[in-house]
Amino acid sequence: MRNKYLLFLLFLPFFLGCGSSHNPKIEVTFHLKKVENIVSSNQMAIWIEDKDGKYIETFFVCDYLSYGGFNIDGICPAWVKKAHWENATEDLVDAVTQATPDIGDVKLEFDAPANKFSAGEYTYFIEIHNTENYNEIYSGKLTINPDGSSSESIASVKYEPKKFPEGSGLLSNVKVRYFISEE
Hints:
- A six-stranded mixed sheet has the order 4-3-2-6-7-9. Strands 5-1-10-8 form a four-stranded antiparallel sheet, with no helix packed on it.
- It has one domain: Immunoglobulin-like (Sandwich), CATH 2.60.40.
- 26% of the residues are buried.
- 17% of the residues lie in helices and 44% in strands.
- The chain contains four helices and ten strands, in the order H-E-E-E-H-H-H-E-E-E-E-E-E-E.
- The longest helix is centred in the N-terminal third of the chain and has 14 residues, at 2-15.
- It is globular and about 45 Å long.
- By secondary structure, it is an alpha+beta fold.
């Protein structure tokens, strides 16, 4: 009897569905290029808004930008205006701040909990500072399907205030994907 009881306890988590969890994720991939003839700052922020343009969350921000660079005019101004980073808590700043990505292929993955991201359409943004007051904003629509199935989006780019004359197009192959991770 005791062995049956121990066997039951061993397999109970699997019967209850605790053997695997489903974690909604948002994955951002791109290639960060080295632009000749300039020293690009590559300061970057990634955030998401709802279908009405309401800011929801910052997923990623570079160290320098996060810890004070946001106060410098011309560095990722669209994100600065939306995020109101001057009011961010220390915990939030620490949670989303990372080193500036290296030149080459970049893959970033973020949690997208269902209590924050219900089914629907969202707009994501990746703003990257080139030099002086030149920035590039990559954006697109991402759908979170009611059935939890994956979706993918390819970003388009807008140059603010305009395309930098000596080099631009810091990112290429910008893709954003929603999926359920089985971790």
